[in-house]
């Protein structure tokens, strides 16, 4: 097989590259499912203990851009090919042009900008290629890394649903952020 030249590749930036999720990525999924703190912040709950067969089935279902409930899944890799995370775009409502993004970065790679870089690529794709108009996301109270990332991306806090999520023995606020295409374009021009 020939070497791939990524010089003009849309699906990368100066830090990461996105690729199709593969069936063999089940191991990444399985091992990252042991991070219960991250699982609570992402899924707003504690899952049952990880099962290898579940990770294999999940990876098989979403591999090669097979759609899963309107979501398209990507693996996040460094430019050196190290698998650091998973990201998906959820096309909520084509009619109204709204979408969401789901993100998970392995613990040892957090805080290095990989997640922010991956979300930036999907925002560019959604706004500039898919003609979508509004990115919406909810964040669990206390998920300071996600709050900081969304503010850095230009998202505005649009509301708080008080005591809306029950986990870890108490109710947490659910914080909503949004980014319109107009605001996205303004923030890109100011950089």
Automatic annotation (TrEMBL):
<dbReference type="Pfam" id="PF13302">
    <property type="entry name" value="Acetyltransf_3"/>
</dbReference>
<dbReference type="InterPro" id="IPR000182">
    <property type="entry name" value="GNAT_dom"/>
</dbReference>
<dbReference type="InterPro" id="IPR016181">
    <property type="entry name" value="Acyl_CoA_acyltransferase"/>
</dbReference>
<feature type="domain" description="N-acetyltransferase">
    <location>
        <begin position="4"/>
        <end position="182"/>
    </location>
</feature>
<protein>
    <submittedName>
        <fullName>RimJ/RimL family protein N-acetyltransferase</fullName>
    </submittedName>
</protein>
């Amino acid at each position: 097989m020939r070497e791939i030249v990524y010089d003009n590749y849309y699906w990368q930036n100066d830090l990461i590259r996105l690729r199709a999720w593969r069936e063999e990525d089940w191991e990444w999924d399985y091992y990252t499912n042991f991070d219960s703190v991250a699982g609570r912040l992402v899924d707003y709950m504690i899952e049952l203990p990880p099962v290898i067969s579940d990770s294999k089935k999940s990876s098989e279902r979403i591999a090669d851009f097979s759609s899963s409930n309107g979501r398209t899944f990507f693996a996040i890799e460094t430019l050196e090919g190290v698998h650091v995370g998973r990201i998906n775009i959820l096309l909520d409502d084509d009619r109204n042009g709204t979408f969401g993004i789901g993100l998970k970065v392995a613990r040892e790679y957090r805080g290095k900008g990989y997640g922010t870089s991956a979300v930036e690529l999907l925002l560019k794709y959604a706004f500039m290629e898919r003609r979508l108009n509004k990115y919406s996301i909810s964040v669990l109270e206390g998920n300071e890394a996600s709050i900081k990332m969304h503010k850095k991306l230009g998202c505005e806090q649009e509301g708080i649903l008080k005591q809306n999520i029950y986990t870890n023995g108490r109710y947490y606020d659910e914080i909503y952020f949004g980014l319109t295409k107009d605001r996205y374009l303004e923030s890109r021009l100011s950089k």
